[in-house]
Write a structure and sequence with these properties.
TIM Barrel, alpha/beta, Lyase, Ornithine Decarboxylase, Chain A, domain 1, 476 residues, 8-stranded parallel barrel
């Protein structure tokens, strides 16, 4: 069964350059990740265009966590947005990409070295705990700096008038810790309290609106305490369509449910059911985990619904925020990296498994594509130097000596039988998938990233270090 991936104009243009793709794949023994930074600028413009509809100041922070790519960071700077980093390494990479400290927000678990660098460079720091705030107070007295800027991240934002179904967070202060935080800040006026930060992966606008309403309440309380916070950072978690045709995914889910219900073989490795199972009552359970991948609301409708939700006074939250000069901050990473890259893996062999089913083994593994974290559900594309009609279906397996090293647990339909030397191409791997978990188990090579730009309609391959978005390029 087909599940085709959504592809942008730039990705489709690149896929047409078959000889170029083979040349690029030959430059590295392992997986080759091709990045299209120009697409990130296009994505930023779309988000900015949406936010311009709302009458409040908006701050966009590209979440470095979603990628290790220096080129995408350079492009984010070129696109005029800020950067969210979650480690000392990411902070260093952000500075290397040309961001200044005042354009960077520091989140995540913070070592002393990370905090020290953040303070010295003038970054805004999202504070996760009272002990972290105490450390900032100590550091500001010892380091050659005159001031620091912080946001308070709250981990349990829940309005009193409504019970929210939210998971506990590893990050952020409990709301009960705010009085002690305020006391510390009053004793240290050189530390500027800029606003409130929260983050969760809730996809429901009403629930998120309740959380935003609670954050607004905290800002109002802080103002009454004599502070002047102006920012509410709602984090990331914004999504857009991954599939070219949602009906294909729904058909696949239906196939799984029917097979599980009738206890028939599935079109998957070892009858893997993607979490769908037959419960004790004899009915199907577990479909939400898989259907949730396709029924995620588009970020455009999500943000509109969030910001137009009525507050306690009956007016939209957006209107209240604008009147009170409260700025909105976002941390999209996955969203801004959409369609910004693909991954090429050479076919090493094609084996015949049980019942004659084909297993395509490639020069890459589940860590190169982070398949343990971002399961590959869409069809990869076969790129071959020959053309022949030989339809088949096959599994894609990696190069580790481990039974679970599968890059796709579905049998992928191909119009042509893969063979040694062909390329298997996974689309849309720039965010998380291409490198988040990358390592060198059994000394297999990590993936290598290259940048693709178009000049006079022709693709050019660059290293990330040499890539400069300020160079002249085509507007495709």
């Amino acid at each position: 069964m087909k599940i085709e991936a959504k592809s942008s104009e730039l990705l489709r243009t690149l896929l047409e350059k078959k000889d170029f793709l083979f040349e690029a794949a030959s430059l590295h023994q392992g997986p080759v990740h091709l990045l299209l930074p120009e697409q990130l600028s296009r994505n930023v413009e779309e988000v900015k265009s949406l936010l311009e509809e709302f009458d409040c100041i908006n701050h966009i922070f590209f979440a470095h966590k979603s990628t290790k790519s220096l080129a995408l960071l350079k492009e984010a700077r070129f696109a005029g947005i800020n950067l969210d980093v979650a480690s000392l390494g990411e902070l260093t990479n952000g500075l290397r990409a040309g961001f200044t400290g005042t354009q960077i927000e520091c989140t995540g678990p913070k070592s002393s070295e990370y905090l020290e660098a953040a303070l010295l460079h003038g970054c805004a720091i999202s504070v996760d705990s009272l002990s972290e705030l105490q450390k900032i107070v100590r550091f500001t007295k010892r380091l050659p700096i005159k001031q620091a800027s912080i946001l308070l991240r709250i981990g349990d934002l829940s309005p009193t008038h409504k019970v929210l179904k939210k998971r506990d967070s590893l990050f952020g202060l409990p709301r009960t810790a705010l009085p002690e935080a305020y006391a510390m800040l009053k004793e240290n006026p050189h530390i500027t309290f800029k606003g409130v930060h929260f983050h969760n992966d809730v996809r429901d606008a009403e629930t998120q609106a309740g959380t935003l309403l609670c954050a607004i309440d905290i800002l109002v309380e802080a103002i009454q305490q004599g502070f002047e916070p102006t920012i509410i950072n709602i984090g990331g978690g914004l999504r857009t369509a991954q599939f070219a045709n949602k009906q294909q995914v729904r058909a696949f889910i239906q196939h799984l449910e029917e097979g599980v219900s009738k206890q028939e073989p599935l079109e998957t490795w070892r009858n893997y059911s993607y979490g769908i199972y037959l419960n004790q009552r004899g009915t199907i359970s577990g479909r939400k985990g898989l259907s949730g991948k396709i029924e995620v609301p588009e970020y455009t409708s999500f943000l509109r619904a969030l910001l137009t939700t009525q507050g306690r006074d009956g007016r939209p939250l957006l209107e209240f925020m604008a009147e009170n000069m409260i700025d909105l901050a976002l941390e999209p990473g996955f969203l801004l990296s959409q369609q910004c890259g693909l991954t090429l893996l050479r076919v090493e062999s094609v084996n015949q498994g049980a019942e004659g089913r084909l297993i395509v083994k490639v020069a890459g593994n589940m860590y190169n594509l982070s398949s343990q974290m971002v399961e590959q559900l869409t069809d990869p594309i076969l790129i071959s130097k020959t053309k022949e009609k030989s339809p088949c279906s096959a599994l894609i397996a990696g190069n580790l000596c481990r039974e679970e090293d599968m890059l796709s647990k579905r049998f992928i339909p191909f119009e042509q039988r893969p063979k040694q030397g062909d390329l298997i191409c996974f689309l849309n791997t720039a965010a998380y998938a291409g490198g988040f978990e990358d390592g060198t188990p059994i000394l297999q090579p990590e993936g290598k990233r290259f940048v693709v730009t178009f000049k006079d309609g022709k693709p050019t391959l660059l290293s990330e270090e040499l890539y400069s978005p300020w160079e002249e390029r085509d507007d495709l």
